[in-house]
Design the sequence.
């Protein structure tokens, strides 16, 4: 169990910069998930921590030691790759033992560690099989086993579940969470899937275009996103972002006149906000409810997804944009019908025109967390 | 309609009408004809230029058959018995096997070494790859003439080197001990490009993630070579070894031009003996028997290699 610190790390491939100075502190034993869209630099950051790429600037610190010039094998880390990267001509047991053989661990100790890891991951029957004789899920378990036997200071996972089918992904997600609980090791996990991030992480780091947008606890990112990118990336279905302008600022919050017509209020700290300023209101689908009279705004229902435990409705706004909300009316809405939607002020986010968030009031955050 | 007929009607046995009314044999025949049409150009080539000459050669080998003239006497296996009593052919078998035994490992090691050294994505290594492959496009005449000059004891590159060190230059091609190694060096220089390309293609098929995993697993460069690269290249190595054995057993141009099979028949190859027997001495039946023996050796060597590689799988 070790801490990992990334200090002002930059990386360029030729003239093309992919990381613009990342600062990140990962506490010992934390399960940190780095999440972001394809090409945001998350895998590059992981490879820099692993030592598989050299940083163009900045320091990587593992357990208090700067490891910039330490080879990957000397960093006491283990990595699980997206495509498993199992040695194809070796059996599962040989794959798991390879790293230990390289560091001249005694044979009896290797056998003991491989057996223990196989028991933890329930892969004893696979030990004599080669990777081509295993399914994707089994290969991934062996790859995790290869990491476990080394008992490293830090585990690195590079999108390890993205090649598995949906059901297996959920199962492996649970098993990885259990494994972290059992090993209590520092784990850094890269994914583009925000559901994986939300369900497994102690701490999430959201990246975009080579920059760290926000780092924090999953619910912190969900309820207090720093900008529209984080708000849009975290949460499924996605948050609705509605442009408008400030109509009034009162003790209850800020009232916004929406571009699509109607108004919404948000409980935020207004700061230097003035009536007339252009803003963006963020409302999560579960925070929208059907309104009566002239409250809220109107939308025309296009698609209804009935998932059993919830019904997700996709509706068009007069401007042509799509808004998503959850129908709690037990199927009362029909396709083509017009609904009026509104949200309580404590559940609305407010962003400046440039996308940066206004702080939500303590009451609003408390109300959000209560939900 | 009889009861027996209705019992086996398409409806009764539950097959779709489309298949019921389209006889399977006609569809199969149509597919077969289409396949034959596509295969025909190669089949014609194969039969005319490979299969027919092969069996014709087998037939000739059972005869006392002169290239010119009308002698066509069936003598059964006599050519085959004579062949093993023939001291010239026995020497050429020994020389050819020795040349193959020296050249194939050197060729495989050199081409693999070059491929490993040149497997980098930059312009400099791309240029080097082209340079090393260029020798392969020379004809045997050009390649051997270059090396005759290089090895010349009067004005050759090695002669200059020996002179500069104050040593007596060696007449490589005239020396019974050095002639065969000289042919090996020439052959490796001339043909190393193609196996190098095969190894490069094999190396580029190995996923980079395996090397990343090995580096994280603390594997040294030697361990990565022996535990990742070489096992991953196993099929390519088998292919190169088989191709090289087949190729080197047929060595002909290099000894013919560089040494004429000398000195004292020390570099005489099987193909040279076959050629001289068939076209200088006109004993086509005897030469055919020798050719079939060579074919048998190449076939056995290839099968043995494939068998060994499959056993290890």
Sequence:
């Amino acid at each position: 169990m070790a801490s990992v610190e990334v200090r002002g790390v930059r990386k360029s491939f030729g003239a093309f910069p992919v990381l613009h100075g990342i600062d990140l502190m990962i506490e010992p034993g934390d399960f940190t998930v780095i999440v972001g869209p394809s090409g945001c630099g998350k895998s590059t950051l992981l490879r820099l921590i692993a030592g598989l790429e050299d940083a163009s600037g900045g320091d990587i610190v593992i357990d208090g030691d700067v490891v910039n010039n330490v080879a990957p094998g000397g960093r006491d880390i283990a990595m699980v790759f997206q495509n498993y990267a199992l040695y194809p001509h070796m059996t599962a047991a040989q794959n798991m033992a390879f790293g230990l053989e390289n560091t001249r661990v005694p044979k009896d100790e290797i056998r003991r560690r491989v057996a223990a890891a196989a028991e933890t991951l329930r892969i004893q029957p696979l030990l004599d099989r080669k990777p081509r004789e295993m399914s994707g899920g089994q290969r991934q378990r062996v790859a995790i086993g290869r990491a476990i036997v080394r008992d490293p200071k830090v585990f690195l996972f590079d999108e390890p579940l993205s090649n598995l089918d949906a059901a297996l992904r959920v199962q492996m997600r649970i098993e990885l969470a259990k494994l972290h609980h059992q090993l209590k090791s520092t784990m850094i996990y890269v994914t583009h899937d925000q559901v994986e991030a939300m369900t497994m992480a102690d701490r999430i780091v959201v990246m975009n275009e080579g920059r760290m947008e926000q780092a924090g606890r999953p619910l912190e990112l969900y309820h207090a996103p720093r900008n529209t990118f984080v708000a849009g990336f975290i949460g499924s279905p996605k948050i609705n972002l509605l442009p408008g302008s400030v109509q009034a600022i009162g003790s209850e919050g800020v009232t916004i006149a929406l571009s699509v017509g109607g108004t919404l209020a948000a409980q935020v700290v207004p700061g230097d906000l003035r009536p007339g300023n252009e803003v963006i209101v963020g409302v999560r689908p579960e925070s929208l409810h059907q309104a009566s009279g002239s409250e809220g705004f109107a939308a025309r229902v296009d698609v209804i997804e009935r998932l059993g435990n919830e019904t997700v409705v996709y509706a068009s706004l007069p401007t042509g944009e799509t808004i998503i909300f959850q129908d709690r009316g037990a199927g009362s809405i029909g396709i083509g019908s017009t609904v009026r939607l509104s949200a309580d002020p404590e559940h609305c986010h407010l962003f400046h025109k440039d996308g940066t968030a206004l702080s939500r009031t303590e009451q609003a955050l408390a109300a959000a967390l209560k939900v | 309609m009889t009861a027996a007929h209705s019992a086996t009607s398409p409806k009764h046995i539950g097959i779709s009408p489309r298949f019921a009314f389209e006889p399977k044999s006609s569809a199969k025949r149509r597919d077969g004809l289409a396949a034959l049409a596509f295969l025909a150009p190669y089949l014609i080539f194969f039969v005319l230029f490979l299969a027919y000459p092969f069996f014709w050669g087998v037939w000739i080998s059972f005869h006392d058959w002169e290239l010119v003239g009308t002698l066509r006497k069936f003598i059964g296996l006599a050519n085959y018995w004579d062949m093993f009593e023939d001291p010239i052919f026995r020497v050429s078998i020994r020389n050819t096997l020795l040349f193959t035994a020296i050249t194939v490992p050197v060729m495989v090691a050199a081409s693999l070494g070059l491929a490993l050294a040149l497997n980098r994505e930059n312009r400099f290594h791309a240029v080097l790859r082209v340079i090393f492959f260029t020798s392969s496009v020379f004809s045997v005449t050009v390649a051997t003439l270059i090396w005759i000059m290089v090895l010349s004891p009067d004005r050759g590159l090695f002669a200059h080197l020996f002179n500069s060190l104050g040593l007596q230059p060696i007449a490589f091609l005239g020396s019974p001990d050095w002639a065969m190694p000289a042919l090996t060096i020439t052959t490796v220089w001339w043909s190393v490009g193609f196996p190098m390309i095969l190894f490069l293609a094999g190396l580029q098929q190995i996923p980079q993630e395996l090397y990343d995993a090995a580096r994280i697993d603390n594997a040294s460069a030697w361990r990565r070579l022996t535990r990742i690269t070489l096992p991953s290249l196993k099929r390519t190595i088998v292919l190169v070894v088989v191709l090289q054995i087949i190729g080197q057993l047929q060595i002909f141009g290099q000894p013919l031009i560089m040494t004429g099979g000398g000195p004292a028949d020390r570099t005489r190859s099987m193909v040279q003996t076959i050629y001289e027997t068939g076209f200088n001495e006109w004993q086509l039946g005897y030469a055919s028997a020798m050719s079939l023996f060579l074919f048998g050796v190449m076939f056995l060597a290839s099968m043995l290699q494939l068998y060994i590689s499959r056993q290890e799988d």
User: Anything to note?
Assistant: The interface with chain A takes residues 207, 209-210, 212-220, 223, 227-228, 231-232, 234 of chain B (CB under 8 Å). Chain B has two domains: 15-61, 79-312. The CA atoms of residues 182 and 286 of chain B lie 30 Å apart.
